[in-house]
Amino acid sequence: MKIGIILLVVAAMALLRWRKVGMLTWIAAWLLGIFVLIRFGFTTPVPMSVVKLYMGILASALIAYIFSDAQRQEQVKSPLKAFLTEKKFAPLLGLVAIAIPTAVAANIYFDMTSPAKPPAFGRTVHPAPPAQINVLETDFDMATLDNPYRHLETDDPAAFQERVANGRVVYYKNCFYCHGDLMAGDGMFIHGLNPIPTNFQDQGTLPILQESFVFWRIAKGAPGLPEEGGPWDSAMPAWENFLTEDEMWDVILFLYDFTGARPRALHDLEH
Amino acid sequence: MRNRKLLLFAVPILLFLAVAVAVKTAFFMDDSLSYKAPVAISEVDQTPRSQALEDQAEAQAEADRTKPYEEAEYREVPVVGSRTAIWVISQLHLLFAAFVLAVPIFALIIEFIGYKTGDKRYDALAYEFTKLLSVSFSLTATFGAALTFMLLALYPKFTNYLAHVFSPTFLPYVLLFFAEAGFLYAYYYGWGKFSPRVHLFLGLMLNVVGTAIMLIANAWLTFMTSPAGISESGALISTWEAVANYTWMPINIHRIIANVAFGGSIAGAYAAFKFLQAKTDDERAHYDWMGYMGNFIAIIALLPLPFAGYWLASEIYAFSQTMGLTMMGGAFSWLFIIQAILIGNLFLFANWYLWLGMGRIEGAERFRPFIKYLLIVVTLCFAVWATPRSILATVDEVQSMGGSSHPSLGYLGVMSAKNTAVNILILTTFISFMLYRRSGKIPTVSWAKKGNLMQFGIFAAAAFTVIFFGVYGYFVEAAVRIKFSIPQVLSVLLAMILVSVIDAFMLRNAKTTKIRWGRISPMSQYLLILLAVTFTWLMGLMGYVRSGLRQHWHVYGVIRDTSPGAFTPTLGYATQVVSVTVLIFFALIGLVFFLSGLSGKKSFETSKDPSPARTAQQAGFAAASGAVAKSDSQISGGNDSSTGGGMQA
Fold first, then answer.
1. What Rg do the C-alpha atoms of chain B give, in angstroms?
2. How many whole angstroms separate alpha carbon B554 and alpha carbon B484?
């Protein structure tokens, strides 16, 4: 978060409180203040789709606040009525009447003159796997598939560490070019990739997935993705063509070990 | 000058004539150049062409005679396709069925309250709710029949398979349906004709039979999602196992609760519709109260609904990871963002309605300052709930975020945050309701101050528990995190129960202030209608998710859908179909409201004189609303009535 922006908004609100401004000004201040906070208050900019969503929710809440009480309703209505009907506001009203179409026109102008960009796209990050997959001529049932070496973690820690070490070698020989040294999805090839590779440090990836899912994604890569969340223009290769089954399981152990995440456990299928 | 005027007049006429001549010439040329068939020569009997036609007819007749019987797998509906046609019809059937099942549940409870307290207003209210049933029941049956015929005609092979598995349940279903018709009409037409106990028994049986029907129908549709009791190839092993499949009970519970919420909201919309049409203060007072009760029922049922939904979703996930991921992380996950916005709006509207309702209660002013804080909490929770995990973003935005989730807001997109938000939202709505309830009552017990402190402490403890487990959920693995929802839910439920119990004791012999039923902003009535529309939309949307999750399967993993409509429609198309269905439903429910209101209309023959029915109804309104200060209501445009504790739920 950018502390300066937050302090600025808080100071503006405090000033309005001190000046004891009317309800209409408060409504405008809330809309503007929250917009500034969301749009400019975060170190990583918040996408416009979320800004619009939040502003919509805030607008609904403010409407509910105004219209849930007759007194508040009047406090908003009377200055608006005065502005629209009293003669002393006529020049200002004229300016507003000109400003609205001007703003619309300016918006269209800047929209049309700015360089064309691809539209916003809602990507399905975790597409559903098929019920069964075939990897290196072996069929795997996705409902019951689990990492065959996960049990070593408790049964034989030394053997487990050996597997993790092998996974490390596999990762740095094959995966780190895209997924990065620290698995943050920021490898050296990232600038040429769209969508960018998965960030394994993100709490919303490895911890919410079962190891079978990760195995499916590694083995089948982009060519094996279902159509449901297309268009798939991922550069992820189908690693079954380059790695052995054991290497893929080892690299999965390493992914979880390195990030400190725990794989999602298989659900108990008892009734 | 004159010549110029003449020219101006003549040129258009000449131009017109020139164009007309050109067009006519073009048509003539076209006509003269086109092919003309030679004049038929009737004297010639046999030509090669007529012989060929005869041979063709004979061959066709032979082919018709020897055509083998082939069972059709699918048939198509023109223009919209079978899938959309059956989607709309089944959704309409479900909406009316939900209403018909829900109204008897709360009509019976209200009638029972009236019977136990001796307060006739409750009896009148229960009757008014029941009035909506008979037309709705007919529409439910009509859409049910349409659905059955469409299944048989459009999906014969699949329907045949369902019959193979579930045929033993068909006869009980039909018999129960007959019983439901009998109990429903006896309950409605027998109002006041039977002794109260017999009438209550009829209502109870109506509910039992209605619920049994729903359980059977739920078995069919849940089997399609999570089949059980069959072999790998789909052969039946056990009908009971097929019935009691993995998602049957979660759906049963979810539907019973959701039906009550939906039914209450539709009844509230009916009351709002009548309120806005009302001509007298008595009518306004009556329908204001009815709307309040409808909304109260809807909100009480809405509060536990997210828990039931969460259970259903986790059971689907447990049954199949693929289906779970399709639902929450894959193709259907965007619908959950729309769902969050709709549910957030439901909570916002519900709170808003309660705050507006405070305006009709004397002494509510003291709670007005709290509204601001409650609204802030509701808005924050709404925002958290609607925050998507995977964000709709441009390429630039994705690159600056380092993925499709925001490094800060991404934390609000996971279940820990969502569960926390919804639990706090429920708790806040309950506090709004408690404030509303308290508005008209001043406790007189000596321990009132301690009681208030205890209630505050309970709310604080529940909020702390919810937030604690919400935050802790980020530090544990998924399997443990899922289980955290249980203490969160339990703490909220426990808080609501404990606070209600303390309130009941604390408000014994409380001083009551006046509730001016009918004196409320018309905005509140539009909110009731908006609530009903949002509930309906939500049912349509989530119904599509539940059904669409199977994707290209009729019966998941067993019977594959090979029809042209086997694809998963785009989100835009799906939401359009749901919206059109909601529009059709409200057009039809408008008809239900109109037909149900006919009994109170003036007689056509004696429009100048009030009909006996109308007179009786007006008298009923006056009695029901408990009007006491007519003169005051004439001045204020509202109606004063003493609460007496009777009208407040």
1. 32
2. 34
Best residue of A1, A144, A178, A267 to probe chain B, by most B CBs closer than 10 Å: A267
pLDDT digits (tens, 9 = 90+) for B155-177: 999 999 999 999 999 999 999 99
Query: Residue A238 above 90 pLDDT?
Result: yes
Residue B21 lies in a domain: no
Average pLDDT over residues A147-166: 93
Could you tell me the pLDDT band of residue A71, with boundaries at 50, 70 and 90? Answer: confident
**What's the domain count of chain B?**
1
Smallest CA–CA distance, residue B154 to chain A, in Å, is 26
Q: Which residues contact A222 (CB under 8 A, 6 or more apart)?
A: A232, A233, A234, A235, A236, A237, A238
> For chain B, what percent of residues have pLDDT higher than 70?
88
Give the number of beta-carbon pairs within 8 Å between A and B. Answer: 191
Q: Is the ipTM of this complex over 0.85?
A: no
- What is d(CA B563, CA B585) in angstroms, rounded to the nearest whole number? 27
Return the amino acid letter for B465. T
> Chain B contacts of A204, Cβ < 8 Å?
389, 405, 410, 413-414
Range of the domain at B478: 363-439+441-512
Residues from chain A that touch B396, judged by Cβ atoms under 8 A, are 117
Q: Give how far B380 is from chain A: nearest CA, Å.
A: 9
Rounded to 10 deg, the angle between the B333-357 and B281-302 helix axes is 140
Alpha-carbon distance B303 to B426, whole Å? 6
- φ/ψ of A99, rounded to 5, equals -65, -35
Q: Chain centroid to CA A77: how far?
A: 39
Asked whether residue B259 carries a pLDDT value surpassing 80, the answer given is yes
Dihedral in degrees, nearest 10, Cα atoms A17, A23, A29, A34: 100
pLDDT in tens, B397-441: 877 887 777 888 888 888 888 889 999 999 999 999 898 888 888
Highest mean pLDDT among A152-161, B11-20, B634-643: A152-161
Helices (H), ranges, B118-246: 120-131, 133-154, 156-189, 196-225, 239-243
For chain A, the structural domain boundaries read 3-113, 132-259
Question: Does residue B391 belong to any structural domain of this protein?
Answer: yes
> Any idea what the Cα angle at residue A225 is, between residues A216 and A227, rounded to 5°?
145
Q: Who has greater pLDDT, A163 or B646?
A: A163
* CATH class assigned to A132-259: mainly alpha
CA B469 to CA B471: how far, in whole Å?
5
3-state secondary structure of A2: coil
Say how far apart CA B375 and CA B383 lie, in whole Å.
Answer: 12
Alpha-carbon dihedral angle through residues B425, B496, B530, B214, given to the nearest 10 degrees: 110
More confident residue, B264 or B36: B264
B528's tokens = 């009731």
A175 vs B632: CA distance, rounded Å = 80
Q: Is B392 part of a structural domain of the chain?
A: yes
Structural domain includes residue B428: yes
Q: What's the DSSP call for residue A139?
A: E
